[in-house]
Write a structure and sequence with these properties.
Largest sheet: 13 strands, mixed
Number of strands: 21
Number of helices: 5
Number of domains: 2
Distance between the termini: 18 Å
Order of helices and strands: EEHEHEEHEEEHEEHEEEEEEEEEEE
Strand content: 25-35%
CATH architecture of the largest domain: Alpha-Beta Barrel
Structural class: alpha+beta
Protein backbone atom coordinates (compact mmCIF):
# COMPACT_ATOMS: atom_id res chain seq x y z
CA UNK A 1 0.00 0.00 0.00
CA UNK A 2 1.27 3.48 -0.84
CA UNK A 3 -0.31 6.84 -0.37
CA UNK A 4 0.15 10.53 0.22
CA UNK A 5 -1.64 13.16 2.24
CA UNK A 6 -3.17 15.63 -0.19
CA UNK A 7 -5.96 18.20 -0.60
CA UNK A 8 -9.40 16.74 -1.19
CA UNK A 9 -11.08 17.14 -4.53
CA UNK A 10 -14.53 16.56 -5.96
CA UNK A 11 -18.10 17.51 -5.07
CA UNK A 12 -19.68 15.76 -2.08
CA UNK A 13 -23.35 15.17 -1.40
CA UNK A 14 -24.39 15.94 2.19
CA UNK A 15 -27.60 14.18 3.23
CA UNK A 16 -29.43 15.18 6.40
CA UNK A 17 -27.65 14.23 9.59
CA UNK A 18 -29.64 12.56 12.38
CA UNK A 19 -28.31 11.73 15.84
CA UNK A 20 -29.62 8.58 17.48
CA UNK A 21 -29.20 6.50 20.60
CA UNK A 22 -30.50 3.04 19.74
CA UNK A 23 -29.73 1.25 23.01
CA UNK A 24 -30.58 2.08 26.62
CA UNK A 25 -32.50 0.96 29.70
CA UNK A 26 -35.16 2.14 32.14
CA UNK A 27 -36.30 0.99 35.57
CA UNK A 28 -38.39 -1.72 33.91
CA UNK A 29 -35.21 -3.80 33.71
CA UNK A 30 -31.85 -2.69 35.14
CA UNK A 31 -31.89 1.07 34.66
CA UNK A 32 -33.35 4.13 36.33
CA UNK A 33 -36.25 6.36 35.35
CA UNK A 34 -39.46 5.51 33.56
CA UNK A 35 -39.88 4.85 29.84
CA UNK A 36 -41.68 8.19 29.59
CA UNK A 37 -38.74 9.95 31.27
CA UNK A 38 -36.31 8.19 28.94
CA UNK A 39 -37.90 9.58 25.77
CA UNK A 40 -38.47 13.02 27.28
CA UNK A 41 -34.78 13.25 28.18
CA UNK A 42 -33.71 12.03 24.73
CA UNK A 43 -35.88 14.66 23.03
CA UNK A 44 -35.76 17.67 25.35
CA UNK A 45 -32.35 17.45 27.02
CA UNK A 46 -30.09 15.43 24.70
CA UNK A 47 -31.72 16.83 21.56
CA UNK A 48 -31.71 13.51 19.75
CA UNK A 49 -33.51 12.86 16.47
CA UNK A 50 -33.92 9.10 17.05
CA UNK A 51 -34.29 7.21 20.34
CA UNK A 52 -34.90 3.58 21.28
CA UNK A 53 -35.47 2.06 24.71
CA UNK A 54 -34.17 -1.52 24.78
CA UNK A 55 -34.97 -3.05 28.15
CA UNK A 56 -33.94 -6.68 28.61
CA UNK A 57 -36.12 -9.63 27.69
CA UNK A 58 -35.23 -11.25 31.03
CA UNK A 59 -33.45 -9.02 33.53
CA UNK A 60 -34.57 -6.90 36.46
CA UNK A 61 -37.30 -7.24 39.04
CA UNK A 62 -39.86 -8.34 36.45
CA UNK A 63 -39.07 -9.69 33.00
CA UNK A 64 -40.59 -8.45 29.77
CA UNK A 65 -40.96 -12.02 28.52
CA UNK A 66 -43.10 -12.93 31.56
CA UNK A 67 -45.01 -9.66 32.09
CA UNK A 68 -46.74 -8.47 28.89
CA UNK A 69 -48.05 -5.36 30.68
CA UNK A 70 -44.48 -4.01 30.83
CA UNK A 71 -44.04 -4.48 27.08
CA UNK A 72 -47.38 -2.78 26.51
CA UNK A 73 -46.26 0.17 28.62
CA UNK A 74 -43.07 0.54 26.62
CA UNK A 75 -45.11 0.43 23.42
CA UNK A 76 -47.44 3.15 24.73
CA UNK A 77 -44.49 5.40 25.60
CA UNK A 78 -42.98 4.84 22.13
CA UNK A 79 -46.25 5.81 20.43
CA UNK A 80 -46.76 8.86 22.62
CA UNK A 81 -43.29 10.30 21.97
CA UNK A 82 -43.10 9.59 18.23
CA UNK A 83 -43.50 12.73 16.05
CA UNK A 84 -42.70 12.02 12.38
CA UNK A 85 -40.61 14.82 10.90
CA UNK A 86 -39.28 15.85 14.30
CA UNK A 87 -38.51 12.97 16.67
CA UNK A 88 -38.42 9.28 15.77
CA UNK A 89 -39.00 6.63 18.44
CA UNK A 90 -38.77 2.90 17.83
CA UNK A 91 -40.07 -0.10 19.75
CA UNK A 92 -37.19 -2.26 20.93
CA UNK A 93 -35.76 -4.65 23.50
CA UNK A 94 -32.49 -6.43 24.30
CA UNK A 95 -32.19 -10.10 23.40
CA UNK A 96 -29.96 -11.10 26.32
CA UNK A 97 -28.17 -14.33 25.47
CA UNK A 98 -25.35 -15.30 27.82
CA UNK A 99 -24.14 -17.83 25.25
CA UNK A 100 -24.18 -15.97 21.92
CA UNK A 101 -23.97 -12.36 23.14
CA UNK A 102 -26.43 -9.51 23.50
CA UNK A 103 -28.35 -7.93 20.65
CA UNK A 104 -30.89 -5.15 20.65
CA UNK A 105 -33.94 -5.68 18.47
CA UNK A 106 -35.57 -2.68 16.78
CA UNK A 107 -39.05 -2.63 15.24
CA UNK A 108 -40.08 0.01 12.71
CA UNK A 109 -43.80 -0.20 13.35
CA UNK A 110 -45.81 0.23 16.56
CA UNK A 111 -46.06 -3.52 17.01
CA UNK A 112 -43.61 -6.34 17.62
CA UNK A 113 -43.07 -9.31 19.93
CA UNK A 114 -40.51 -10.10 22.60
CA UNK A 115 -38.73 -13.21 21.32
CA UNK A 116 -36.89 -14.14 24.50
CA UNK A 117 -33.42 -15.66 24.43
CA UNK A 118 -34.55 -17.96 27.28
CA UNK A 119 -37.25 -19.47 25.07
CA UNK A 120 -35.94 -22.61 23.35
CA UNK A 121 -37.67 -21.47 20.18
CA UNK A 122 -35.53 -18.29 19.99
CA UNK A 123 -32.34 -19.17 21.88
CA UNK A 124 -29.96 -18.74 18.92
CA UNK A 125 -29.41 -15.73 16.66
CA UNK A 126 -30.61 -17.75 13.67
CA UNK A 127 -33.85 -18.60 15.47
CA UNK A 128 -34.32 -14.96 16.43
CA UNK A 129 -33.83 -13.82 12.84
CA UNK A 130 -36.24 -16.47 11.57
CA UNK A 131 -38.90 -15.32 14.04
CA UNK A 132 -38.41 -11.69 13.09
CA UNK A 133 -38.64 -12.50 9.41
CA UNK A 134 -41.82 -14.53 9.95
CA UNK A 135 -43.42 -11.75 12.04
CA UNK A 136 -43.87 -9.55 9.00
CA UNK A 137 -42.82 -6.44 10.96
CA UNK A 138 -39.79 -4.51 9.63
CA UNK A 139 -37.01 -5.13 12.15
CA UNK A 140 -33.23 -5.02 12.63
CA UNK A 141 -30.83 -6.44 15.20
CA UNK A 142 -27.48 -5.09 16.42
CA UNK A 143 -24.74 -6.95 18.29
CA UNK A 144 -23.14 -4.87 21.03
CA UNK A 145 -20.14 -4.84 23.40
CA UNK A 146 -19.10 -7.63 21.05
CA UNK A 147 -15.37 -7.84 21.92
CA UNK A 148 -15.84 -8.51 25.62
CA UNK A 149 -17.17 -6.61 28.60
CA UNK A 150 -20.40 -8.14 29.90
CA UNK A 151 -20.46 -10.91 27.28
CA UNK A 152 -18.70 -11.20 23.88
CA UNK A 153 -20.56 -11.89 20.66
CA UNK A 154 -20.32 -15.35 19.13
CA UNK A 155 -18.90 -14.32 15.75
CA UNK A 156 -18.89 -17.95 14.58
CA UNK A 157 -22.49 -17.17 13.62
CA UNK A 158 -22.44 -14.83 10.64
CA UNK A 159 -24.67 -11.75 10.95
CA UNK A 160 -27.86 -12.00 8.90
CA UNK A 161 -27.17 -9.71 5.89
CA UNK A 162 -30.77 -8.47 5.79
CA UNK A 163 -31.62 -8.19 9.48
CA UNK A 164 -28.20 -7.25 10.90
CA UNK A 165 -26.49 -4.84 8.47
CA UNK A 166 -24.85 -2.88 11.32
CA UNK A 167 -22.98 -3.47 14.55
CA UNK A 168 -22.58 -1.31 17.64
CA UNK A 169 -18.88 -0.55 17.85
CA UNK A 170 -18.87 1.65 20.98
CA UNK A 171 -20.96 2.31 24.11
CA UNK A 172 -20.48 3.05 27.83
CA UNK A 173 -18.53 -0.20 27.98
CA UNK A 174 -15.90 1.15 25.58
CA UNK A 175 -14.82 0.36 22.04
CA UNK A 176 -15.15 -3.11 20.50
CA UNK A 177 -13.54 -1.97 17.26
CA UNK A 178 -10.04 -3.41 17.48
CA UNK A 179 -7.13 -4.26 19.75
CA UNK A 180 -5.45 -0.96 18.79
CA UNK A 181 -8.55 1.11 19.46
CA UNK A 182 -8.35 3.94 22.00
CA UNK A 183 -10.90 3.56 24.77
CA UNK A 184 -10.98 -0.20 24.37
CA UNK A 185 -13.71 -2.22 26.08
CA UNK A 186 -12.86 -3.98 29.34
CA UNK A 187 -12.10 -7.73 29.44
CA UNK A 188 -11.73 -8.06 25.65
CA UNK A 189 -11.45 -11.48 24.07
CA UNK A 190 -8.53 -11.64 21.60
CA UNK A 191 -9.71 -12.21 18.06
CA UNK A 192 -13.29 -11.16 18.89
CA UNK A 193 -13.18 -7.51 17.93
CA UNK A 194 -15.36 -6.01 15.20
CA UNK A 195 -12.33 -5.73 12.93
CA UNK A 196 -11.69 -9.45 13.40
CA UNK A 197 -15.26 -10.09 12.26
CA UNK A 198 -14.64 -7.92 9.18
CA UNK A 199 -11.53 -9.97 8.47
CA UNK A 200 -13.77 -13.06 8.39
CA UNK A 201 -15.52 -11.49 5.42
CA UNK A 202 -18.58 -10.18 7.27
CA UNK A 203 -20.03 -6.92 6.01
CA UNK A 204 -21.70 -4.39 8.26
CA UNK A 205 -21.76 -0.69 9.00
CA UNK A 206 -20.91 0.96 12.31
CA UNK A 207 -23.10 2.67 14.89
CA UNK A 208 -22.53 3.70 18.46
CA UNK A 209 -25.15 3.84 21.20
CA UNK A 210 -25.11 4.55 24.89
CA UNK A 211 -26.30 1.39 26.64
CA UNK A 212 -27.04 3.88 29.41
CA UNK A 213 -28.67 2.66 32.60
CA UNK A 214 -28.99 6.03 34.34
CA UNK A 215 -31.74 7.67 32.30
CA UNK A 216 -29.43 9.77 30.08
CA UNK A 217 -29.85 8.58 26.48
CA UNK A 218 -27.68 10.56 24.09
CA UNK A 219 -25.39 11.89 26.82
CA UNK A 220 -24.08 8.74 28.47
CA UNK A 221 -20.46 9.82 27.93
CA UNK A 222 -20.88 12.72 30.37
CA UNK A 223 -21.06 10.31 33.31
CA UNK A 224 -18.80 7.54 31.95
CA UNK A 225 -15.39 7.28 30.27
CA UNK A 226 -17.24 6.47 27.04
CA UNK A 227 -20.70 6.69 25.55
CA UNK A 228 -22.08 6.09 22.10
CA UNK A 229 -24.11 7.71 19.35
CA UNK A 230 -25.34 6.62 15.94
CA UNK A 231 -25.01 9.19 13.17
CA UNK A 232 -27.67 8.33 10.59
CA UNK A 233 -27.52 9.91 7.13
CA UNK A 234 -31.16 10.26 6.15
CA UNK A 235 -33.12 12.96 4.37
CA UNK A 236 -36.27 11.99 6.30
CA UNK A 237 -36.89 12.18 10.04
CA UNK A 238 -39.24 9.21 9.82
CA UNK A 239 -39.14 5.54 10.69
CA UNK A 240 -39.08 4.69 6.99
CA UNK A 241 -36.17 7.05 6.33
CA UNK A 242 -34.19 5.79 9.32
CA UNK A 243 -34.78 2.15 8.34
CA UNK A 244 -33.63 2.80 4.77
CA UNK A 245 -30.45 4.51 5.99
CA UNK A 246 -29.64 1.75 8.48
CA UNK A 247 -30.22 -0.97 5.90
CA UNK A 248 -27.93 0.84 3.45
CA UNK A 249 -25.22 1.29 6.15
CA UNK A 250 -25.38 5.08 5.73
CA UNK A 251 -24.12 5.52 9.28
CA UNK A 252 -21.12 6.18 11.44
CA UNK A 253 -20.35 5.84 15.15
CA UNK A 254 -19.05 8.18 17.83
CA UNK A 255 -18.16 7.69 21.49
CA UNK A 256 -20.83 10.26 22.39
CA UNK A 257 -19.35 13.46 20.97
CA UNK A 258 -21.23 14.91 17.99
CA UNK A 259 -18.32 14.78 15.60
CA UNK A 260 -19.25 15.48 11.99
CA UNK A 261 -17.67 12.94 9.66
CA UNK A 262 -17.80 12.30 5.95
CA UNK A 263 -15.71 9.72 4.12
CA UNK A 264 -15.76 8.44 0.56
CA UNK A 265 -13.56 6.02 -1.35
CA UNK A 266 -13.66 6.97 -4.99
CA UNK A 267 -17.39 7.36 -5.69
CA UNK A 268 -18.46 5.09 -2.81
CA UNK A 269 -19.80 6.66 0.39
CA UNK A 270 -19.58 5.28 3.92
CA UNK A 271 -21.11 1.82 4.07
CA UNK A 272 -21.14 1.46 0.29
CA UNK A 273 -19.28 -0.69 -2.21
CA UNK A 274 -16.62 0.16 -4.75
CA UNK A 275 -15.84 -1.76 -7.93
CA UNK A 276 -12.31 -3.16 -7.92
CA UNK A 277 -10.02 -0.52 -9.50
CA UNK A 278 -7.70 -1.31 -12.36
CA UNK A 279 -4.28 -2.62 -11.37
CA UNK A 280 -1.96 0.22 -10.35
CA UNK A 281 -4.78 2.76 -10.31
CA UNK A 282 -4.88 4.96 -7.17
CA UNK A 283 -8.20 5.50 -5.43
CA UNK A 284 -8.78 8.67 -3.42
CA UNK A 285 -10.02 8.31 0.14
CA UNK A 286 -11.75 11.61 0.95
CA UNK A 287 -12.19 12.59 4.61
CA UNK A 288 -13.91 15.58 6.19
CA UNK A 289 -14.16 15.80 9.98
CA UNK A 290 -15.39 18.60 12.22
CA UNK A 291 -14.56 17.98 15.85
CA UNK A 292 -16.11 18.98 19.13
CA UNK A 293 -12.53 19.42 20.35
CA UNK A 294 -9.19 19.76 18.53
CA UNK A 295 -8.54 16.81 16.23
CA UNK A 296 -5.40 14.80 16.91
CA UNK A 297 -5.38 12.35 13.98
CA UNK A 298 -7.39 10.40 11.47
CA UNK A 299 -6.44 6.74 11.17
CA UNK A 300 -6.97 4.94 7.88
CA UNK A 301 -7.75 1.24 8.37
CA UNK A 302 -7.35 -1.00 5.35
CA UNK A 303 -8.29 -4.67 5.59
CA UNK A 304 -7.20 -5.24 9.17
CA UNK A 305 -4.17 -2.95 9.10
CA UNK A 306 -3.63 0.59 10.27
CA UNK A 307 -2.53 1.83 6.87
CA UNK A 308 -1.94 5.52 7.58
CA UNK A 309 -2.21 8.20 10.24
CA UNK A 310 -3.22 11.64 8.98
CA UNK A 311 -2.01 14.40 11.30
CA UNK A 312 -4.75 16.97 11.95
CA UNK A 313 -2.40 19.33 13.78
CA UNK A 314 -4.91 20.21 16.46
CA UNK A 315 -7.36 21.73 13.97
CA UNK A 316 -11.08 21.54 14.71
CA UNK A 317 -11.94 21.08 11.03
CA UNK A 318 -10.01 18.73 8.74
CA UNK A 319 -10.51 18.11 5.04
CA UNK A 320 -8.07 15.94 3.16
CA UNK A 321 -7.48 12.93 1.03
CA UNK A 322 -5.26 9.92 0.75
CA UNK A 323 -4.46 7.75 -2.26
CA UNK A 324 -4.86 4.00 -1.77
CA UNK A 325 -3.07 1.83 -4.33
CA UNK A 326 -3.91 -1.62 -5.69
CA UNK A 327 -7.20 -2.15 -3.88
CA UNK A 328 -8.43 -5.68 -4.44
CA UNK A 329 -11.82 -7.35 -4.33
CA UNK A 330 -12.68 -8.39 -0.78
CA UNK A 331 -10.87 -5.50 0.91
CA UNK A 332 -12.47 -2.89 3.17
CA UNK A 333 -11.48 0.61 4.24
CA UNK A 334 -12.69 2.85 7.08
CA UNK A 335 -11.41 5.79 9.09
CA UNK A 336 -11.14 6.44 12.82
CA UNK A 337 -11.13 10.01 14.11
CA UNK A 338 -9.25 10.73 17.36
CA UNK A 339 -9.76 14.01 19.23
CA UNK A 340 -7.40 15.57 21.77
CA UNK A 341 -10.07 15.00 24.46
CA UNK A 342 -10.17 11.27 23.52
CA UNK A 343 -13.46 11.58 21.71
CA UNK A 344 -13.69 9.10 18.84
CA UNK A 345 -15.60 8.53 15.62
CA UNK A 346 -15.58 5.66 13.12
CA UNK A 347 -16.89 5.71 9.56
CA UNK A 348 -18.77 2.67 8.32
CA UNK A 349 -16.44 0.57 6.16
CA UNK A 350 -16.45 0.83 2.39
CA UNK A 351 -16.14 -2.55 0.65
CA UNK A 352 -14.30 -3.38 -2.58
CA UNK A 353 -16.06 -5.90 -4.80
Amino acid sequence: MAGRDQPARGRRVRPAHLWGDLHGHSNLSDGTGTPEDYFAYARDVAGLDVAVLTDHDHWGMQHLDLHPALWERIGASVRAAHVPGSFVTLLGYEWTSWIHGHRHVLYFEDRGEVFSSLDEAYETPQALWSALRASGVPALTFAHHSAGGPIPTNWDIAPDPELEPLTEVVSVHGSSEALDSPGRIYSPVPGNFVRDALDRGYRFGFVGSGDSHDGHPGLAHLASPSGGLAAILSEEVTREGVLAALRARRTYATSGQRIILRAALGEARMGGTLAEPKAGEPTLLFVHAIGTAPLRAIHVVRSGTLAAELDCGGAWDYTGGFDLLDLKRGEYVYVRVVQEDRGLAWSSPIYVE
